[in-house]
Amino acid sequence: MPNRKPPSKSRASSKNPSEPFDENHRGKNALKMLARELANNYFDVSVGYSLRGDALIEQYKRVFRPPENEPHGRDYKDVPRVRNIVLVGAGVPYAAFGGVQFPLAKDAVNLLREKLGVAGLRDALGKYDSSDPEIRDRFAEEEKIFSQLYSIQNPHEDFETQLAILSKFYTPRQIRGALKDIYDLRFYPHIVFETIAHLLKHRFVDAVISYNFDEVLDQAILEEVREGEHRYVVSDGDIVEDLRNIMFDDTLKVPLYIKPHGTITHKSSLRFTKDEYVGMPSDLLAFTRKILRGHTRNDPSAQEDQFSVNLISIGFAFTSIELIELLRKHPSLRIFHINLATKDNPERLAKEVNKLENPGVEQYLIGIDPDSPDGGDETWPTMSSAIRSLFDTTFERFERIYKPRHLSRHEIVHALLFNEDTESWKAGLAGRPRGCGARIPTDPRDYFYARLCVELALALLKGNGRIDLTTLVDDRVGIYYGIVAQL
Questions:
Q1: CATH number for the domain formed by residue range(s) 23-94+186-405
Q2: pLDDT (tens digit, 9 = 90+) per residue, 377-391?
Q3: Structural domain boundaries of the chain?
Q4: What are 423-467's pLDDT values in tens digits?
Q5: Using CA atoms, how far apart are residues 381 and 171, in angstroms rounded to an integer?
C-alpha cells in the first residue's frame, strides 16, 4: 500500500463575524469548488490504485478539459483521498414538494398534534386536556427544560422537542403510528432525489446519510443503484463491524445509504426524541462515525488511514445533536451547504457549525433564494435549479469521450410526470390543487400507469426498439408493472 499523507489540518476557515461566507465561499465559486470535488471523486474511484505518479497525472489531464485538467495541488504520488458524503435533511422534500405532504417545524408539530388528537388528551388518557391550564403549564414547563438542556430557541416550534414532550403523554407506538400517517411516502419522483441517487450510483459521492423518515429518496436510490449494488443501513443489523470487509484499495466497494433515525416502513426503527438519538445502537453509531470521519480501518486514532471529508449538506439545518457529536473536532472537514440564503439562515448555519469546535472547518454556501429568480452568481431560485447547475458544471469538466452518464432519463421522467408549480405531488394525484397543470394525474393509479408507459418507452429507446424481458423484470419496468398489476 502506498504511503498516505494524513489529512490536512490547515484549511483556512471562511467564517467571519460579519460575513460567514465570503465571495470565494458562496454562489458560483462554491458550486465550482464542489463540482471539482465531485469530478475528482468519480476519477479517483474509477482509477483506484491502477496508476501511480506521473502516469496517474497524465490520465487526469486526458480525462478533464483544460483548464480543469490540472490536479490542483493533488499530490498523486502519495495518493491522497477524499470521501464525499451527502447529508440529506427535511429541507429537501419540503423544497421539492412543498409543505402539504412534507411539513416542517411548526406545521409538522401541528399536524402531528392533529393526528394524535392532542385537543382530546383527556379522552385519550383520562387525565389531561390541552385546553386546561394544567396541560398547558406542563407543556410550557417541558419546553423550558428542553430549551435549557439543548439550547433550543423556539422549543414550541422544534419538531424533535415536541415529539419528546408528546412521548410523555402518548406511547411510542401511538407516536410512530401518527408519524407513519404523515410520512409514509415513497413514489414521488423529483429531479433532486433522482440526482442524488445518480451521484451515488456513479460514485461522484461515496455515501448518502438521510435523517428523514419518508422513503422518497429510498425509492430513487433503489431504482438507480438497485439492491445488492449498495449497502442500506437502517439498524445495527445492517452494519459491518470491520470496515476492511467493505473496502477495496481503501475505497468503499459499494456506495452506502444510511438512515440513522430509521425509516417509516419499519416503525420500530424510528428514533424521534433526543434521548433516543443519544441512545442509538452503539454499533450503528460507531459505524456512522467511522464513515463520517473518513476512516478506512477500525482504529479511530489511526490518522494515516483516514480520508479528508467533503460533507455536502442539502436542506439540512445542522441542529442534530448526535451529528454534532459525530463531527466534533473532525481532523479534516469541508462542508458545502445547499440551503436557503434568505434572512439570517447563512449566519445560523455558520453558528451551528461552530459547535463542532473545529476552527479549521471550511464552509461553502450554494444558496437558494425563491424571491430572487435571477440571483446572478450568488443564488438559485429553487433547490432543483441549484442541483441541476451543480451536475451540469461537474459534467462539463470532462472531455467528451470521458463524460459520465448524464441526467437525461431523469429529466424526461421529471418533465413528463411532475409539475413544479404544484404545491404537493400527492395533492396533485388526489385532486387538482391551485397551479396544477394537466400533466398531473388525478388518481394515483393514473400515475403508476403513466410511469409504466414512460419506463417502457425509455427501455425501447435504450434498446433501439428491442427489449430483453429478463432485464426488464429487474429494472424500473418490472417495478412499476408489479405495482400496476396489484391495482
A1: 3.40.50.1220
A2: 789 999 999 999 999
A3: 23-94+186-405, 103-181, 413-485
A4: 434 333 433 333 333 334 456 777 888 889 999 999 998 888 888
A5: 42
